[in-house]
Automatic annotation (TrEMBL):
It comes from the Eukaryota. Plays a central role in 2-thiolation of mcm(5)S(2)U at tRNA wobble positions of tRNA(Lys), tRNA(Glu) and tRNA(Gln). Directly binds tRNAs and probably acts by catalyzing adenylation of tRNAs, an intermediate required for 2-thiolation. It is unclear whether it acts as a sulfurtransferase that transfers sulfur from thiocarboxylated URM1 onto the uridine of tRNAs at wobble position. This is Cytoplasmic tRNA 2-thiolation protein 1. ATP binds at G43, A44, S45, D49, I75, G153, D158. The keyword Cytoplasm applies. GO terms for biological process: protein urmylation; tRNA thio-modification; tRNA wobble uridine modification. GO terms for molecular function: ATP binding; nucleotidyltransferase activity; tRNA binding.
């Protein structure tokens, strides 16, 4: 390659990095995602989204003096041959980016690894358990780090898929909040998505050309058929209308829920104190089933009655977690 050609290739790359990073910066500033001096945990799975997020956020934090204290927060679901390998990537990221890492494991929190759960329940509802447990594990990890916010690497493609899935499932509660750039503001630790408007393709290109260290193997227990359909549907739409992803997000943002729609009321779990719209939170119901050797108790129609308050069990059984997506990424 000629020197001039090399130079112009480099200039093109620099230009892409600059625009990519500036767009994220504008999203952060425009949506007032952080306040000066906040402690912020980055949900880190070792996958491309969270690795790029950790890298870009530390760059922007330095460049624009956000004044943030950044941490990496990883969840160890206990999936041999998948999470153990991806955690090695996060441990390298800890050194590469100079960010302290906290790992919380399902085994420590719940007494079960995903390997053990799959052994008991098989591959059918594994992501329901995993998604529910992960959501709570992230909050518990964030509390350990005493952070003010948790950021995740959800990108525009993920959000558009989630809008479509929530419409298909008739999940009005999730539909109403899935496009919010910050959620859980009324809870202890709000969560933000700085990549809300960033296409997955851009993230892949950025990670590739920056030669970032990330893990790209899929979870060995990933079925994800339903999300797969939504993903294919959106890919088809995008071929016909390139801005389909942003349009779907916009549609999701503009949905208005009828005031007559009954929404779940938030309280706390009587057993563990975690936020819950029921007497027991989902994690406690699922755990009870596992510990009693009746793992379907928390997912199917109730046969027995653990706490006498399963009115919405059917609704919950169908709400296969949005967390279960391509699942290297720590979703929420
Ligand atoms: Fe858990 Fe994701 Fe694997 Fe499902 S695909 S078992 S949610 S890590």
């Amino acid at each position: 390659m000629e020197a001039g050609e090399e130079k112009s290739k480099k200039a093109g790359g620099e230009c892409f990095y600059e625009v990519f990073e500036e767009e994220i910066h504008q999203v952060i500033v425009g949506n007032r995602l952080f306040k000066f001096g906040e402690r912020v945990a980055i949900g880190a799975s070792g996958g491309k989204d969270s690795s790029v997020l950790a890298y870009v956020l530390s760059e922007l934090n330095r460049r624009h003096s956000y004044g943030l204290d950044l941490f990496l927060l990883s969840i160890d679901e206990g999936i041999t041959g998948y999470r153990d390998d991806s955690l090695e990537t996060v441990k390298r990221n800890e050194v590469q980016y100079g960010l302290p890492l906290q790992i919380v494991s399902y085994k420590d929190l719940y007494g079960w690894t995903m390997d053990e759960i799959v052994k008991m329940i098989g591959l059918k509802n594994n992501c329901t358990f995993c998604g529910v447990f992960r959501r709570q594990a992230l909050d518990r990890g964030a509390a350990l780090l005493k952070v003010d916010k948790l950021v995740t690497g959800h990108n525009a493609d993920d959000i558009a898929e989630t809008v479509v899935l929530n419409i298909l499932r008739g999940d009005i509660a999730r539909l109403s909040r899935c496009t919010s750039i910050t959620t859980g503001e009324d809870g202890p630790i709000p969560r933000c998505k700085p990549f809300k408007y960033t296409y997955e393709k851009e993230i892949v290109m950025y990670a590739y050309f920056k030669k970032l260290d990330y893990f790209s193997t899929e979870c060995i227990y990933s079925p994800n058929a339903y999300r797969g359909f939504a993903c294919e549907f959106i890919n088809d739409l995008e071929r016909l209308r390139p801005r389909a992803i942003l349009d779907i997000i916009k549609s999701g943002e503009d949905f208005r829920i009828a005031t007559t729609t009954k929404m779940p009321e938030q309280g706390t779990c009587e057993r563990c104190g975690y936020i819950s719209s029921q007497k027991w939170c989902k994690a406690c119901v699922l755990l009870e089933g596992l510990n009693r050797g009746l793992p379907k108790m928390g997912i199917g129609r109730p046969r027995g009655n653990v706490n006498g308050d399963y009115k919405d069990i059917k609704a919950r059984s169908t709400a296969k977690t949005i967390e279960s997506k391509q699942c290297g990424s720590l979703d929420f």
